């Protein structure tokens, strides 16, 4: 295996990386005084919001704990559920008002056979996930991505290792339709492995994955922070790739509700979004992140070691428990709740904006893997995505909060954005789909329907 040679900086470690974080991270100006924003009389002030225990739930938890909901006249009860299907089921049944969900869930609901009118109000965060595999792979010579010259060197090694095994490879995701699942499939196919046939994907709650790994039930998993860091700390496995290196700036979780609920409660919807946006800004401030980690670590939320949570908020990331400093990296954009410095940002870009191009990309992948009963790209996709990921509501709230908006909701992704070097032009989704040699029922040629 080829190893990359790194310059060794004296004193480089997690403590010193934290110092670097202070000088390499910034967010939009944040006013800690109450905004003079009035969305009108609230149609409903007592809300139930659902979430699953992971670091991506921070905006909802912080909005509750730091009084952002209260500032907008809302009294909120947070309801923790074990699975995303549980959150979705309660939203569809109007048993809760809104909740945290993986990005693709509203698309799956509306374009699926039941045509459930679930919508996304805003994106809660970008990046924030990683793929972890077991120590057996380490013993076989596989190393974290940072140990290789490039992706080609890594994928040759991992492909050979997994194909030469006597038993099939099994990786876990928290849902077959989570962003983690789609990025894992993208990563596997870039390696040259066919998901489902060469690598089986199984579902477990992220909080249980370390135990499944330790029991030998799975060979690895893809999950949001901080569950990968727990596995590294307990020396049960190591991180191969962080998700931001599979797709720079990918959407992860969203704030979802029913279309009918948002129409019935327009003022409440906007107040809810404003409170969550301000909480996202709060989470991204470096001087708040120790406090944010301590809140998230409480037993009624994530019930985890605060240091694990704080490291992923700041970006002091451990790929392995090995003492080699190469495996301790500062990744300032590992998690973005609102805005961090990143080479893939435009001047007014921020994480909460519902880019239409993100929805287009997700739709291409759902078609690629036949997760919908749609086998070509819909000619009316723009109209469909307008209903599922409405932009207008968010723009109204952002304007009220004096948050600048990106210049274009159809963001092109350059070849450096994705791990396989493919660029993405959202205005030409069919050509993008037909680039992929590995896909469900290949080698079908995709068109418009």
TrEMBL record:
Signal peptide: 1-20
Keyword NAD applies: no
GO biological process, alphabetically ordered: monoatomic ion transport
SUPFAM superfamilies named among the record's database cross-references: Periplasmic binding protein-like II (SSF53850)
Any one cellular-component term (Gene Ontology): plasma membrane
Gene3D superfamilies (UniProt xref): Periplasmic binding protein-like II
Compartment(s) of residence: Cell inner membrane
Keyword Signal belongs to the record: yes
Database matches in Pfam families: NMT1_2
Keywords linked to the UniProt accession: Cell inner membrane, Cell membrane, Ion transport, Membrane, Signal, Transport
InterPro entries, A to Z: NrtA/CpmA_ABC-bd_dom (IPR044527)
Major place of residence: membrane
Name this protein carries in UniProt: NrtC-like protein
Organism in which the protein naturally occurs: Crocosphaera chwakensis CCY0110
